[in-house]
Amino acid sequence: MDWDQARIFLSVARSGQLLAAARHLHLDHATVSRRVNALEAALRVKLFERRTTGTVLTTAGEQFLQHAERMETAMLAAQAEIAGTNVSVSGTVRIGAPDGFGAFFLSPRMAILLQRHPDLLIQLAPLPRTFSLAKREADLAVTVDRPEHGRLTARKLSDYSLSLYASAGFIARNAMPTSVADLAGLRIVTYIGDLLFSRQLNFFDDLALPARTRFECASVAGQLEAIKAGVGVGFVHDYVGIHHSDLVRILPECKIMRSYWLTVHDDIKDLARVRAVADWIFEAVHQPDAAMVHKD
Asked: What DSSP string describes 177-227?
């Protein structure tokens, strides 16, 4: 069996499109189509149903997927063993992370990792509502839920805290809330409920507030800017809030605790580049300057 053909098959199966697979593999569309056709001819079966919206695995394709993934596992194991003898850490590592952790924690610290391993190419991707390490949509994932299914290795990164914040101008216009009941009359800045990828991010459920005036935003960065601009009151990660002197922390008793988990697929956890990035992320969140939890 030609591993290159199997590799292309896996990319098409996971992306559901020939064009998307071609982009991922840095090949042209015609090459991907030709290789898939050659594989189907060699196996004498049809692996994909071609549709206007993309490709769908046939029954034979579903069966071959299991064999192709075993081939991939063997190739990755060989790569990990060989790379383990090489001092240099190089290649591409894609990190999937919540946009707050990615934008406000990882990105500002990325120079440290890249100075340590200058031959790495790091790709930082926000976690969407559906996300799969098994489909190689990322090499590492930072999540707020511990994964319970699949061949995944997860370790707890850290607890972190969120507190209610508002701008000084907002407090001047509305007065400082002294109880949770006072929040009912204020505009709340929060997530868009049906776009949450984890129910753990629906922080205001913990306060059991009635649905009043809200500004909803799917982005943590957007929520932060709205709170700073005086749109309303909202939860902000404390490791972000402490760096914004224009924000006022209110109702400290409403602090919410959550946890970050670092997850990697078992097939690639021993790759030198993946292991190096995972170790660095773990190291970074435990540095004294990380301040993941607000100390009251």
From this structure: --SGGGGGGSPEEE--GGG-S-GGG-GGGGGT----SEEE-S-HHHHHHHH
Q: Where are the beta strands (DSSP E) in 44-202?
A: 48-51, 54-57, 91-97, 120-126, 140-143, 152-167, 188-190
> What is the CATH topology of the domain spanning 92-156+260-287?
D-Maltodextrin-Binding Protein; domain 2 (3.40.190)
The amino acid present at 143, given as its one-letter code, is T
How far apart are the C-alpha atoms of 94 and 212, rounded to whole Å? 39
Positive or negative, the Cα torsion across 244, 249, 252, 257? Answer: negative
Which one-letter DSSP state was computed for residue 105? I
Low-confidence residues in the chain, pLDDT < 70: 1, 79-88, 128-136, 206, 209-211
d(CA 140, CA 113): 15
pTM of the model: 0.74
CB 86 within 8 A of CB 272: yes
Instruction: Report the topology of domain 3-83.
Output: Arc Repressor Mutant, subunit A (1.10.10)
SS3 per-residue string spanning 218-286: CCHHHHHHHHHCCCCEEEEEHHHHCCCCCEEEECHHHCEEEEEEEEEECCCCCCHHHHHHHHHHHHHHC
| CATH 3.40.190.10 residue ranges for the chain | 92-156+260-287, 159-258
Q: Which tens digit of pLDDT belongs to each residue from 225-267?
A: 999 999 999 999 999 999 999 999 999 998 999 999 999 988 7
